[in-house]
Design goal:
Helix content: under 10%
Low-confidence stretches: 1-9
Largest sheet: 5 strands, antiparallel
Order of helices and strands: EEEEEEEEEE
Strand content: 25-35%
Shape: globular
Number of helices: 0
């Protein structure tokens, strides 16, 4: 018999190569070559958000990304229950930017359920 408990986040992680430094907990986009970059410099579209960095990584390092359904615990200053959107400068805010990219929902001041 299976009981419902805390969802496992291990299956909701993706490994990829960093293209540029990836700051801890920042929103990431997938590039055409399959690498991932931090959001910034006009690289965010409505389709390329992949998730949040699970740690900080240097350029060309293997990186673990918290993808849809994962709980990212690298945030700060969030309001539980609030929806957050990726901004074009790589920050998160409660107001959608253009393009509107939903990042996830905060479950505490430091944790977010990732939407990707």
């Amino acid at each position: 018999m299976r009981t419902i408990g805390t969802p496992s986040t291990q299956a909701r992680k993706l490994n990829a190569i960093a293209s540029g430094a990836l700051p801890n907990g920042d929103p990431l986009v997938v590039n055409a070559d399959g690498t991932v970059s931090a959001v910034g410099g006009g690289n965010l579209t409505s389709e390329n958000y992949i998730g949040l960095a699970s740690n900080g990584y240097p350029d060309t390092a293997g990186a673990t990304i918290d993808v849809q359904g994962a709980i990212n615990d690298r945030q700060s200053g969030l309001t539980a229950g609030q929806s957050y959107y990726v901004q074009t400068d790589g920050t998160l805010d409660t107001t959608p930017a253009d393009p509107s990219v939903f990042a996830g929902t905060a479950i505490s001041a430091t944790k977010m359920i990732v939407k990707g």
